[in-house]
Design goal:
heterodimer, A: 208 residues, Dna Topoisomerase Vi A Subunit, Chain: A, domain 2, 2 domains, two-stranded antiparallel sheet, 9 helices, globular, B: 384 residues, alpha/beta, 15 strands, 42% helix
Chain lengths: 208, 384
């Protein structure tokens, strides 16, 4: 372990290096950078972090990060409440929002089923999704499963499908296939094969 | 259907090889015959190391030592293996270099690969080495690995499905452990993994059976040639379940799985039973018969690889003459000297035995006398 001339410095470096992707050297660089900033700036920085952790709440309906009991998306009257898009985590909500193609509501699971990582169905917001669909089965027409296209994602999709089947809502899964702008010859064979099997009528690409 | 017309195939061969600080070679430059190249010398002279260098250029790694840095010559900082290959009239330069504590660099025609896996399979090679006895003596895993490797060469979906299956298997086994720890068994969470195992397991099973339908006649043919047709050999695929009852079998095994805390039924337990004259080769085959069995397996693999690639792979025979009688050695070398096989590299302890053998066969053969990490002498017989 390296030793520093100041215990304060040492403590700060150790805290930073606990962050993902940050090693001891990067931590030291960040800490020294902060020391060179105005006091007010650094205080604002640390307050933003501590308030984030203390005051942030999760939407009671979709589990997205929120400032109030219901998040902005769930509160918005302009959103289409007949469609729910199920995603793994909050980053996926941000990614889908950035597409501007989806106007329905979300449901954030908080991960995918993976016993090797100690994550079972009970560790995810699956019960609350089931209750949500049950409670709103008159309005909800479709649940879109937008999880990773890994084996664990597929397995979680299958679990959700089994849990939601009794409610007679439409259940769809996001398309998988060739990325926009890709040359076919560089696509991997599995993806290309899947694209052929899951081809869509040409008419659909004209109307959208 | 794969078709095994082995006659007149396009040809791949290594023309030149140069080594710097590779294993016990300080520096060596070798020019090869298009047909046979034999390395003769005492134990530890460096015969196998030349074969290993050729293996490096095909698979980006050693067959003898998985730790790359240990293939650098003692007290040196780097090694370089370079080869000039001719494939279908085109000449390619391959380069593999490693500096201590640095990443391995692999280049084809001076252009570095982004991923080493892009290179593997482009210059196909089939190796026969003493370690192959594991195919017979080792566990069922060794035998599955062999067929999975051959099938994956021509069926990319198979490889993908196999990886998915193995991953789902790990997850299911982890779940069974969690159940045991928590003393709680939740069928709904187990079923979703069963579904992955069934979907992919049935596919793998079907493909393996299709593969055997094609593979077995090729294998039998080679074995008959080697042994002089005095023995009957077969390979049985032993499956715990069929395609039609896979689901039921997995369900039946569930209670057993719960107690064992791992998945006891599935294609990951299937095995190949090698039989000679109606008895298992493992118990009843002599060492020479076992060796012939392995050679026939490898030659059948060669035929498949050649079919997939459209040209002949390189053959490496590391110390194969050990435990084979003179007649079988003669049969083997006669077989691979034919047109349907390409370039062959052989290591053996006796230069005189090699010379006599190839003189009787009449095929072109370049003999390298290896001594303490250098080529002491070369001699070409039956030059064409």
């Amino acid at each position: 372990m390296e030793t520093f001339s100041s215990r304060l410095l040492q403590a700060a470096v150790e805290e930073f290096s606990r962050l993902p992707g940050i090693g001891k050297k990067t931590a030291l660089r960040l800490v020294l950078h902060l020391l060179r900033q105005e006091k007010e700036d650094v205080i604002r920085f640390s307050e933003a972090i501590s308030r984030l952790r203390q005051e942030v709440i999760y939407c009671t309906q979709c589990h997205n990060i929120s400032d109030q009991a219901l998040c902005e998306i769930c509160r918005s009257p302009r959103r289409d409440n007949t469609v729910i898009c199920v995603v793994e985590d909050i980053r996926d909500v941000i990614a889908i929002e950035n597409t501007g193609q989806f106007h329905g509501l979300y449901h954030v699971l908080g991960g995918i089923i993976s016993p090797m990582d100690g994550i079972g169905p009970n560790d995810l917001a699956i019960d609350s999704l089931q209750q949500r669909v049950e409670k709103n089965k008159e309005t909800i027409q479709e649940v879109i499963l937008a999880l990773s296209t890994t084996m664990e994602g597929d397995t979680t999709n299958f679990y959700l499908f089994k849990k939601l089947k009794p409610y007679h809502v439409g259940i769809s899964v996001i398309a998988r296939g060739i990325a926009i702008g890709d040359d076919l010859e560089y696509a991997d064979e599995v993806t290309l094969g899947r694209s052929i099997i899951n081809r869509t009528p040409y008419q659909n690409s004209l109307t959208k | 259907m794969l078709n095994f017309d082995l006659s007149k195939s396009p040809f791949m061969h290594c023309k030149e090889l140069s080594l710097v600080n590779f294993k016990n070679y300080q520096e060596a430059n070798l020019g090869f015959s298009e047909k046979f190249n034999c390395f003769a010398g005492n134990n530890g002279a460096g015969k196998t190391n030349v074969l290993d260098a050729i293996y490096y250029l095909s698979f980006c790694k050693s067959f003898a030592n998985p730790v790359d840095s240990q293939n650098i010559r003692f007290e040196e900082d780097f090694f370089v293996v370079q080869g000039k290959y001719q494939v279908n009239g085109q000449e390619d330069d391959l380069y593999c270099g490693l500096k201590r504590n640095q990443r391995k660099v692999f280049k084809r025609n001076k252009k570095e690969y982004d991923r080493l896996s892009d290179h593997i399979g482009v210059y196909p090679l089939v190796l026969l080495s003493p370690g192959d006895t594991q195919l017979i003596l080792g566990g069922s895993e060794d035998r599955r690995k062999f067929i999975d490797g051959v099938i994956s060469q021509y069926n990319k979906e198979y490889l993908q499905r196999l990886l998915t299956y193995n991953r789902a298997l790990q997850q299911r086994n982890a779940l069974l452990k969690v159940f045991a720890e928590k003393r709680r068994f939740d069928e709904a969470s187990l079923e979703i993994w069963d579904e992955q195992l069934i979907q992919n397991g049935v596919y793998i099973l079907k493909e393996r059976k299709l593969f055997f339908r094609d593979f077995l006649p090729v294998f039998n043919n080679y074995y008959a040639t080697l042994s002089g047709e005095n023995e009957t050999v077969t390979i049985e695929y032993q499956a715990a379940a069929g395609e039609d009852n896979y689901r039921e079998k997995l369900l039946e095994a569930r209670e057993r799985d719960r107690i064992a805390q791992y998945t006891t039924m599935g294609i990951h337990k299937d095995d190949l039973l090698f039989m000679i004259n109606g008895n298992p080769v493992k118990k009843f085959g002599s060492q020479g018969q076992q060796k012939s069995f392995i050679i026939a397996l490898k030659l059948a693999q060669f035929a498949f690889t050649k079919k997939v690639k459209g040209f002949t792979p390189i053959l490496l025979f590391d110390d194969v003459f050990d435990k084979l009688d003179a007649e079988r050695v003669q049969h083997l070398m006669q077989l691979v000297s034919k047109e349907d096989f390409g370039q062959v590299f052989v290591s053996d302890t006796h230069a005189s035995r090699i010379e006599k053998l190839f003189k009787s066969i009449g095929a072109e053969c370049k003999i390298f006398i290896v001594d303490q990490g250098s080529i002491a002498k070369t001699k070409t017989i039956n030059a064409q």
